[in-house]
Amino acid sequence: MRQGINIQVNIRIQFYIQVQIFLYIFQQNQQHNKQLICYLLFQIKNNNNLFIFYLIKGELNNQGQKHGKGKLWYQNGDRYEGGWLNDKKHGQGKQYFKNGELFIGIWQQGQRFGYGQYFFSNNERYTGNWLNDMRHGEGTMWYNNNTKYIGTYYKNKKIWQWQIYRLLWLGKRIILGPWKITRTKKIKKRL
């Protein structure tokens, strides 16, 4: 039996004008464990001027969905590198945004979940927990005016008590302080 690498190209045309080009590598003619070398999706709709372009490099499951490790380049200049599960971002990953922002962390079912870091284009950053694509739980926010907030988020909003740290530059020394505890709106849980 001849062993080696077989290359297969599939082209599908769907919906208005949507062209998908797949380039697979199969080991020993077995279709499972296929690795997607390149995936291009062009979607053109004339009336609404809809032009969508994706470039993907990674792995697919048997249904042709992104699954495993891979990279996705979006038409708008954003890029994702990391884990996939049934066509959704899942596990450890990095999302690079065209405006210079970056998220490094954990994804679940296509949304930021668990621990992650978000770096803003203005040099501010958030490090902490995420739930359903929102800052949720314990977190730390660093602002570009040398202020650091440590506290709790609920659906992207600061709640409970926050510790505020401000770095003061005195000659060659850095002094951390003074810090204060502030109170923000409490959210009551309804039973």
Automatic annotation (TrEMBL):
SMART domains: MORN. The keyword Repeat applies. Pfam families: MORN. Keywords: Methyltransferase, Repeat, Transferase. The keyword Methyltransferase applies. GO terms for biological process: methylation. One of its GO terms (molecular function) is methyltransferase activity. It comes from the Eukaryota. InterPro entries: MORN. Coiled coil: none annotated. Its EC number is 2.1.1.43. This is Radial spoke head protein, putative. It comes from Ichthyophthirius multifiliis (White spot disease agent). The lineage of its organism: Eukaryota, Sar, Alveolata, Ciliophora, Intramacronucleata.
